[in-house]
Amino acid sequence: MRHKHGESRKQVTLFPIMLDELVGSDSLVRVIDAWVESLDLKALGFDKVQASPMGRPPYAPADLLKLYLCGYLNAVRSSRALERECQRNVEVMWLLGRLAPDHKTIANLRSHNSEALVAVCAAFIQFARRERIIAGAVVAIDGSKIRAVASRKAICDANDLTQERRALQTQVSQYLTQLDQSDEQERETLLKGDVGRVLIRLKARDKDIAQELERLSQSDSKLSVVTEPQAQVMKSLHGAPGYNLQSAVDAHSHLIVHHKVCRDATDLKQLAPMAKACAQVLQGNPDIVADAGYASAEHLRELDAAGVVSYVAPARAVNSQGGGLLFDRTVFNYDAQQDVFTCPAQKILKRKQSSKHDKNVIYAANPQDCALCPKKSQCTNAKQRFVSRHQYEDTLQASAMRVELAPHMMRIRRSTVEHPFGTIKHQILGNARLLVRGLRGAKAELSLAVMAYNFKRVSNMKGCQWMMSALRA
Question: pTM for this one?
Fold first, then answer.
């Protein structure tokens, strides 16, 4: 019995095979082609949609967008890797009609069309809404930190920046001294040559450092990333620079109906903006569910005023003094009319001060009452007991009560929002690290990743044939 053998590589065929015959009728690249062809790329904000009558014809942004979407669906993100795919991947050859753009041309689409790529994501969600894939009744919001291009070695503090600025100013002074010691003709030559270019670069860097020092003086963070100033040092990334990917996921379809990339190291300021964006995308007010990282009283109050029902896990600190054995503030009764607290020994705690920063009001007991109290050893180790109350305490308590009465909403949150992040980080981004620097680059890359996830999700739910039929309709 002989083994099977293929055809000779030098065999000539009488009837050449068409490229279209090599791509299956249910291949996802056919859906990608139909989807991109259905878009109005000019309205979405892509550049070079209309070719200039002069010069060499450019590549169509539609072809490059098809290439990127196909690449991200197969965890191929590098422009050089995509360039190679154009030469070896039959499906990519079919998708682009055997076009083979160079890696620089491919990279330019991603770096120059950040907002347009965000708009393409939104367009796909509207397609899913028209096809009744998205229910929009419950939306889970969560954030995940994605590593930036810059490494930990690029992180510095204000002292490092100040020392670098002094060194730059010393270099500038040396070049200026060299120019002062030259005659007029030689000075002009130096300014037009390498010396002039170096001076421009040094002064630009000095200006950037001055702006970064100003930003650090006005922010809570005391660290800066030299090679990527827009990146933020993230504790959850073990101190590496990164960005915060916010996503709102429909609990029915598990599609990401809205996403946002920001620099915030926490999610505390993202609840209301994300909920409002979801309402605009879905043209209604879905129920919002989020974890304790979003438990901002101001944002919860804003959602209540807008008529949005939210289920946000409470994030209330407990009294950890005395090994956690002392009275918690929950055993103190608040009298709203008199604006005082009553302790377990029936003594009064009066309003002492308020904090504009965290919106907390501090109430203090009388030191003499505490000194004579038989329960003092169970209450505080200090001279007197202090209790804090948030300015919007009623809102926080109402939110905690909603979560307590509907514990299944937290299970819905976990089963809804964790899966998309896992897919994006491990299956689409591969090593979960960005390739393009800056906030614009992060928006472009993560928009492509979100679009790839949504595309894959719908194809798994409905199938490629259904998607083709829906796009033709």
Answer: 0.84
